[in-house]
Design brief:
Rossmann fold; 509 residues; 56% helix; single chain
Length: 509
């Protein structure tokens, strides 16, 4: 779709696309066909932004190039788009599309209508992104020096179609094009953009945005994951200080701060894993992977949650902000790289869980317990191994005899299942051993009048560990063992029994 001619009646800013225009204009509109239809790409045909998609992939694929991004931007958005596109590899077939719009475009094309993709995205990127759709007659977009957006796009389309054209867009940047078009098609726009477009008096079709943004945003925060942050209260419980209001309030503040910052990391993780999630049978329906929420909104909400969480952490007047910052740093490193590294991923998960217990000590000034931290680390390591084993169990089928089958985005193969399960069970038994040694230590007498009663907890702990691994082996476990624990009725029965045993070991009778 490129040629060598230039048309002098187009201003210099439009010359970058004129070569493509001059060659193909005769094929597009000869007056006998319906009004040609130009379609925007970002946010219109695709429920995403290709520049942001490329930058997010850059973080994962070539993070060493990130310091160059500000210098690319200094040379203009067009230059940034070109360099970002050249630096990464995207699977365009996984990009979320506006399905109702796509089906309508296919119908229009079948009726003889000429379709043009007119986008501010890099032209080479746009060509590759829509190639699999086999839909557009011409693709025009930005090059290294010119950004085909707003007035420049309007000028280019006017030059292509002297007799007029229709245009499908979604944002305020499209008003410059809508003003000079014969027909307006509004796709997935907000209420204010749609109202302004209606005032132009040329709207012929509207594709409303599907889904509820508030609901989708709530899902992206994953409030159900906040149950993990209850680990912050563990030091208060095990030290018998949980009955004191100052201790509970400090623990609650830490819980809120951790929950906000954890939600920020969940959003960042979802944004960095867009391509992997879209290839997943279940995760493809997540708000950002499906395009229900925009990448820009996700980045804004993540930043807001982080700032709010750190602000709450400073209220404690202790070292909680430092712990939170380290937690976010490790969690981000986990999302970017560590979760694909064999064994380092499960060790990191165990550390992230244990950091919540450490935070509970820090905000309450309760002295650290080597017994508690050792017990917690081995238990969480067992659950982390269980999480990986679940993925391997789901991947491995009875008819699959390949030993090189791998978990997507992970460093494990199907043949690793046996050793992963063994390591996970061993870690669980080690946590039970630590607890048994604690009962026999001198430290236990500082808190309990009848330490022998605590032996009643040991079979409950072993029951929990063995049960969750059996459920995992049956393929009935969700991706996250801790969430399964929170939803399982047996967990609450065990918890009640543990509380009864602890009270019995504490009081005089």
């Amino acid at each position: 779709m490129r040629g060598a001619q230039e048309n002098s009646n187009i201003d210099a800013a439009s010359k970058s696309v004129q070569a493509a225009i001059s060659v193909s204009a005769s094929d597009i509109g000869d007056g006998s066909n319906p009004t040609p239809l130009a379609v925007d790409l970002d946010g219109t045909l695709f429920r995403s932004n290709l520049l942001l998609e490329c930058l997010l992939r850059l973080v994962k694929q070539k993070p060493w190039l990130l310091p160059l991004v500000p210098f690319w931007l200094i040379r203009g958005r067009a230059f940034l788009k070109k360099r970002a596109f050249e630096a990464v590899t995207l699977d365009y077939t996984l990009l979320p599309v506006q399905r109702p719009l796509l089906e309508w475009l296919r119908t229009e094309k079948a009726h003889g209508r000429r379709l043009v993709l007119a986008t501010a995205a890099n032209e080479d990127l746009a060509v590759q992104a829509v190639a699999h759709l086999e839909l557009f007659d011409v693709v025009i977009g930005s090059d290294e020096t010119h950004n085909l957006k707003g007035p420049e796009k309007a000028s280019a389309l006017q030059s292509m179609f002297n007799s007029g054209f229709a245009y499908a867009g979604n944002s305020g940047a499209d008003f410059a094009v809508w003003k000079v078009s014969k027909e307006i098609i509004v796709v997935g726009a907000g209420a204010s953009v749609k109202a302004q477009a209606q005032r132009l008096g040329k709207v012929t079709k509207v594709f409303d945005q599907s889904g509820n943004k508030i609901t989708s945003l709530t899902r992206s925060l994953r409030p159900y994951q906040w149950v993990k942050n209850l680990l912050i209260f563990v030091p208060a419980f095990t030290s018998h200080e949980g009955v004191r209001w100052p201790i509970l309030i400090q623990s609650l503040i830490a819980f809120v701060a951790f929950s906000l910052c954890a939600s920020a990391t969940y959003i960042v993780n979802d944004l960095l894993d867009l391509e992997e999630d879209r290839a997943h049978s279940r995760k493809q329906f997540r708000p950002f992977a499906s395009g229900e929420l925009s990448i820009g909104l996700g980045l804004s909400v993540a930043a807001g949650c982080f700032l709010a969480g750190m602000g709450v952490a400073f209220v404690t007047g202790r070292a909680l902000p430092v712990i939170l910052f380290l937690y976010i740093l490790i969690a981000t490193a986990y999302s970017v790289r560590i979760k694909r590294v064999l064994l380092l991923d499960v060790l990191t998960l165990a550390i992230l869980y244990t950091m919540r217990v450490i935070a509970g000590h820090v905000v309450t000034d309760i002295p650290f317990s080597v017994w508690l931290l050792s017990f917690a680390f081995f238990l969480f390591l067992s659950l982390a191994f269980c999480k990986r084993a679940t993925e391997l169990f789901k991947m491995k089928k009875p008819t699959d005899i390949r030993s090189d089958a791998t978990v997507p985005g992970r460093g494990y193969r199907s043949e690793d299942l046996e050793i992963i399960s063994t390591a996970g069970l061993s870690s669980g038994f080690l946590s039970s051993l630590v607890f048994a040694l604690y009962i026999n230590s001198d430290s236990v007498t500082l808190l309990y009048r009848h330490p022998a009663v605590l032996w009643g907890i040991l079979p409950l702990l072993l029951y929990y560990i063995l049960r969750i691994w059996i459920v995992c082996g049956r393929g009935e476990l969700d991706d996250d063992p801790i969430l399964y624990t929170a939803k399982s009725p047996s967990t609450y029965i065990i918890a009640i029994l543990v509380v009864i045993i602890v009270v019995a070991a504490t009081i005089n009778f």
